[in-house]
Amino acid sequence: MSGDESTASSVDTRHDCSCYPDSDGDIYSRYKSRAMNEESQRFFKEALKFLIDDVINLLRRQILLIREIETKKFKQDADVTSYLDAFEIIAEQIIGQPDMANEYHKMGGFAIFPPCFRCTNSKIRAASLNLMAQICENVAYCNQIVISSDLFHLILKLLEEEKDLKVANEALNTIAIVLRNNSQAYKTFVLQKGFEVMLGLLQKDDDKLRSKTAFNLMTICRAETGAKNQMVLSDYLPILVTLISQQPKPSHEQVLKLLVMITKNNNKAIEQLKQPKYRMQDVLLECWQAAKNLPNYEEMEEHCLDLMSILNLPEIT
Question: Which Gene3D superfamilies match (predicted)?
Fold first, then answer.
């Protein structure tokens, strides 16, 4: 090996940046990237805070507008468009945003509901119930506020007294959402005579409302083991039997299904329905024959047969 070659090979290149042409560039790039990230984070945090503040201010303006309702009396044909728009704006900012729904309550947003529930204009009553349903859906914090405050009682009272069917449907939907998978809400529902209110709905002369009420009662039965006995105690059976004794309507299917659900594996219900005054053999036979002669009533036929089997009545031949 020549001297020059030996010298060249013995040179310590460990700290020679020229051996790593991209080294300085990498260090600079990493430093610049970190600085940019920190700057970006600050920017996004400030932008997010601005957006949240903007939404909160928007919600506050809608709350102030809607609270005017408390001091006004509206005729049914009054123009309430600005208030209905305010309900929609609030809903748009809250749907799918649990944190924003919680924030809405903390800024006093729930104070709009009592005067809206009492409003003489049915559109405002319906819109306020619809908004509450959207706020409470899947938001445990808001559900708890409704249950622990007077709001749940107000909705039940409205549901009991409401003459406008659209408003009654909105109230029923709100109750169903608050009750969903919520044992605490169910206890409050029972204590505040919720079953009695629902029984009154079944007797209203509106077939769609009756079907929806029966459906929601079945949902409660599936979720709460004591619900079936509670309905027996609340005198549901004679009312349900009276309903299925009438001329067949689309709601008969849901009413019969509810009757089957209450009675199945329930000795108290079976014992009561076997009393001669209910004439269950005749009622179910007439119901079955009527369904058999009508199109699209196949499930009603099946429910009649199911109930006959549960009550151990003679089979239809």
Answer: Leucine-rich Repeat Variant
Distant-in-sequence, close-in-space partners of 178: CB < 8 Å, separation ≥ 6: 136, 143, 146, 147, 152, 155, 185
**299: in domain:** yes
Burial of 263 (0-12, 13-18, 19+ CB in 10 A): buried
**Residue 231 resides in a domain:** yes
Q: Which helix (H) or strand (E) holds 220?
A: helix 207-223
In a domain, 26, yes or no: no
Q: pLDDT per residue over 193-239, tens digit each?
A: 999 999 999 999 899 999 999 999 999 999 999 999 999 999 999 99
Residues in the chain: 317
**Domain identity same for 83 and 149:** yes
Number of domains comprising the chain: 2
Helix (H) or strand (E) holding 114: helix 113-117
Enter the pTM of the model: 0.81
Q: Are residues 164 and 235 in the same domain?
A: no
Whether 187 and 245 map to the same domain: the answer is no
**Is the confidence at residue 70, as pLDDT, over 60?**
yes
The type of residue at 9 is S
Q: Which amino acid is at 242?
A: T
- Residue 72's CATH number: 1.25.10.10
Structural domain boundaries enclosing 118: 51-192
- Rounded Cα distance between 240 and 280, Å, is 12
Residue 2 exposed, middle or buried by CB count within 10 Å (0-12, 13-18, 19+): exposed
Helix 151-161 to helix 122-136 angle, to the nearest 10 degrees?
A: 140
Report pLDDT digits (tens) over 231-276: 999 999 999 999 999 998 999 999 999 999 999 999 999 999 999 9
